[in-house]
Amino acid sequence: MRLPWNRKKDGGEAATPAPLETEAPNAAAQPESRGWLARMREGMGRSASAISSGLTGIFTKAKLDSATLEELEDLLIQSDLGADAAMEICAELAKERLNKDISAAEVRGFLAQRIADILAPYATPLVIDKSRKPFVILVTGVNGTGKTTTIGKLAHWLRSEGHKVMLAAGDTFRAAAIEQLQIWGERAGAPVIAGQQGADASGLVYEALSQARAAGADVLLIDTAGRLQNKTGLMEELRKINRVLAKQDETAPHAVLLVLDATTGQNVLSQIEVFRDMARVSGLIMTKLDGTARGGILVAAARKFGLPVHAIGVGEGLQDLRPFDAGQFARALTGAGEP
Question: Residue 25: pLDDT above 90?
């Protein structure tokens, strides 16, 4: 099997990149929409279980009263939806059903609809502008969020849509990040431009863009470091990467995606704030929704920062990153049935 990434020769010079594979992965390997919905529901089972069990415990009376509403608000806040969203949802529920009969199942359906309504304005497809060739996507995020894994899944997703994709191992600080991206590049069928650990990240990115242009790539996905313990150094590195990209394409990067780990809960909000200021983030991807009961943090994040949510991840497989759908997510989060 041909190795799809670019290795260094003994003399340290970059080898000629492997030709881009133009065929998309076997269409038969692509999951059906229903299959994805089932995996998402299963993956978000912990979040749904926490909310469902809470609702069952709260709604033991026939009529909705003020005390029950306060308990519901507390449950939503504990589920990481955020105080503002929790208060808004409870106020709307009170307006419609206060002092009227209501069941836990009805509340679950109400929550699903209101959460979908909150998230709908932010559910935004990741659009590849074909007039930008290659379309350069800078991927940022704290180390450990699943950033490198997400790049591999995103490469697979874009290739399944017919795009020619190349990857750049711009996190040169960690050897593990370089090796991991090479493994994911091979799995996704996307060439990886990589250097040595400790190499200048901006120089690597400059070379990657040159090779991507020469190879006729449609998309260049760039991994970046995420060591927030040195924010000043990281900010300067990101600025250098932007400067070298602009030397070849003054409009690049064309998208800056921030990868977030749902298991970190409220820490997600501080990460968005930091990276938004450092990297001019244009959109969000949330990962590891299958490993937490804190999936509601996506509601709080979208509402607070108003950034587009492009995709979510609920597993480790190549196909476990998919476009974000507000209605599907809301129903999986609350355990509500299909509309």
Answer: no
* Count of beta carbons in the 10 Å neighbourhood of residue 243: 11
Q: Which residues contact 76 (CB under 8 A, 6 or more apart)?
A: 85, 86, 89, 90, 111, 296
CA-CA distance, 309 to 124, in Å (whole number)?
6
Residue 179 contacts by C-beta under 8 Å, 6 or more apart in sequence? Answer: none
DSSP letter at 286 equals E
The mean per-residue pLDDT over the stretch 175-204 comes to 94
The alpha carbon torsion through 294, 339, 122, 85 (nearest 10 deg) reads -50
Instruction: Looking at the chain, list the stretches that DSSP marks H as alpha helix, in order from N- to C-terminal side.
Output: 33-43, 45-58, 66-78, 83-97, 104-119, 147-160, 175-188, 201-215, 231-248, 267-279, 297-305, 326-334
User: How far is residue 52 from each of residues 47, 56, 296, measured CA to CA in Å?
Assistant: 9, 6, 13
Q: Check whether residue 166 and residue 307 sit in a common domain.
A: yes
Q: How far is Cα 98 from Cα 2, in angstroms, rounded to an integer?
A: 65
Q: How many angstroms separate the CA atoms of 317 and 68, rounded?
A: 41
Diameter over CA atoms, the chain: 78
The number of domains in the chain is 2
Overall pTM > 0.85: yes
Tens digits of residue pLDDT in 89-142: 999 999 999 999 999 999 999 999 999 999 999 999 999 999 999 999 999 999
Identify whether residues 106 and 203 lie together within a single domain.
Answer: no
Domain with 81 in it: 39-122
pLDDT digits (tens, 9 = 90+) for 38-91: 888 888 888 888 898 999 899 887 889 999 999 999 999 999 999 999 999 999
Answer whether residue 12 shows pLDDT above 70. no
Together in a domain, 186 and 294 = yes
Q: What is the pLDDT of residues 222-238, one digit of tens each?
A: 999 987 766 788 888 99
Main-chain phi, psi angles of 52, to 5 degrees: -65, -45
Question: Which of 89, 122, 155 finishes a domain?
Answer: 122
What does the alpha-carbon distance between residue 223 and residue 282 come to, in Å, rounded to a whole number?
A: 15
Shared domain check, 219 and 193: yes
